[in-house]
């Protein structure tokens, strides 16, 4: 995975795991890769992977079964969708509209490009 400089690596890792849940790679109550396996797969320090998993657990996206590993929380996919839609509508979209206005673009011109 190639990481960008605009966001902490552990948050990018958490986003990637959320992407995998959204894509259906992991379903409710399904086990996800261990912290160690995920760290090796993405070639990061295990402490970074631990932070990513802790963040996802704090967000109630995954949960830990002691001795068994981490699992997807039931309803996690819907929660990720809700959260990402809200972020898109409240943060991303206003910036897109601002840029469109600055560049003199209208919605029709933008939709022609999609």
Helix percentage range = 55-70%
The CATH topology of the largest domain:
Arc Repressor Mutant, subunit A
Q: What is the string of helix and strand elements?
A: HHHEEHH
Spatial extent as radius of gyration: 17 Å
The order of strands across the largest sheet is: 1-2
List the helices and strands and how they pair.
Elements: H1 9-22, H2 35-42, H3 46-58, E1 62-65, E2 69-72, H4 76-103, H5 107-112
Antiparallel strand pairs: 1-2
Helix pairs in contact: 1-3, 2-3
What does this structure look like?
The structure is a single chain. This protein is mostly helical and 114 residues long. It folds into two domains: 9-74, Winged helix-like DNA-binding domain superfamily/Winged helix DNA-binding domain (Arc Repressor Mutant, subunit A, Orthogonal Bundle), CATH 1.10.10.10; 78-112. Helices cover 61% and strands 7% of the residues. The protein is built from five helices and two strands, in the order αααββαα. The protein has a two-stranded antiparallel sheet. The two termini are 26 Å apart. The model has no long low-confidence stretch (mean pLDDT 94).
What key attributes describe this structure?
61% helix, single chain, 2 domains, 114 residues, two-stranded antiparallel sheet, elongated, mainly alpha, Arc Repressor Mutant, subunit A
Task: Sum this structure up briefly.
The protein has 114 residues and is mainly α.
